[in-house]
Amino acid sequence: MIEYGDGTRSVHAGLPPAVPGEPFLPGPVFAAPYHLDPAIGPSASPNGYGRPDNRTRRLLEAAIGSLEGGSALAFASGQAAVTAVLLSVLRPGDTVVLPADGYYPVRGFATSVLAELGVRPVFAPTAGPHPDYAGVRLVLLETPANPGLDVCDVAALSARARAAGALLAVDNTAATPLGQRPLDLGADISLASGTKALTGHSDLLLGYVATRSAPLLESLTGWRTLTGSIPGAFDAWLAHRSLFTLDLRLERQSANAAAVVAALAGRSDVTGLRWPGRAEDPAFEVATRQMRRIPGIVGFDLGSADRVARFLAASQLVAAATSFGGVHTSADRREQWGDDTAPGFVRLSCGIEDAADLVADITAALDASK
């Protein structure tokens, strides 16, 4: 079997067989109902009704599944994907271990909805120490963590979870399946917000879950069918189209991050610099051993909220916006969203601009913001 490279896999993932006169990627199917066989009904076709059955969504799921190395289900958003995992797996009396420094709405969901349902949430920092998994039903990791960019050893923690009888899921949003493949590292589930770098054009909301477990896939499929948390056909089509440039976008974003980090490292007015691809970063050893490429996300502290505002106002190329992984460089001050960070902490997501232009703009904006 031929082992294709990342660029080739991204371009060809999930495409149907070539048929003369047909497009490479068929256009989106918007149907809600489909024609049914008058006698045997929906069993005659995989398309019965638009909520559980949509051929555009299935092509996207085939593409994501091939990149993740499992079977994939698409959801309406990343938050819909992670809550689907939590609610379909956990039952009253269960314990779930969650990242203390990961995406803040997941912590909020755990301390409100899950706790009210009788599920006990335990929070652990991504970099550790991690608790004993005895008696735990599910462990959720986020690596690299958002926004602090700490990294954990997925293979080691997967082995610990398996020995304790727990399931392990990895939020793969920051890395994408071209950056790391959690299922190859022993995880039971890989999930992500496809809104971010996976699709990368800041024009849709999407989430997904991938697994190699048939029982988990069946449970999650049933959950999605009953709750209706599906992406629209046009969003699914846009997402699939966007995958074609995933390798190119990630390569430029990572290279831009390296250039920006090199410029920031020499400045006395920038502290707390984080990027797992930097040799001095505490996550460097695990990240470079575990990951196939480092994402274009950089963290640093400008000392105060006022200086962050001045920096963003002075920049011509850095958009003040939340989210990350897009083709446009963006940055935001994470404390304003509820993250437990210093007031001046900035998460900067490098886009695909020319590195020299981006470094010059950021340097000038930092100088102007002093």
Key attributes of the depicted protein:
single chain; five-stranded mixed β-sheet; 370 residues; alpha/beta; 11 helices; seven-stranded mixed β-sheet
Query: What is the count of DSSP helices, taking H or I runs of 4+ residues?
Result: 11
Order of helices and strands: HHEHEHEEHEEEHHHEHEHEEEH
What's the pLDDT, averaged over the residues? 97
Helical fraction equals: 25-40%
Q: Rg, please?
A: 21 Å
What is the structure about, briefly put?
With 370 residues, the chain is an alpha/beta fold.
Description of the structure:
The protein has 370 residues and is α/β, with parallel strands linked by helices. The chain is 36% helix and 15% strand. The chain starts with 5 loop residues before the first helix and ends with a helix.
How is this fold's topology laid out?
Elements: H1 6-12, H2 55-68, E1 71-75, H3 78-89, E2 95-99, H4 104-116, E3 120-124, E4 138-142, H5 154-164, E5 167-171, E6 189-193, E7 207-211, H6 214-227, H7 233-243, H8 246-265, E8 271-274, H9 284-290, E9 297-301, H10 305-314, E10 319-320, E11 330-333, E12 345-349, H11 355-369
Parallel strand pairs: 2-3, 2-4, 4-5, 5-6, 10-11
Antiparallel strand pairs: 1-7, 6-7, 8-9, 9-12, 11-12
Helix pairs in contact: 2-7, 3-4, 3-6, 8-11, 10-11
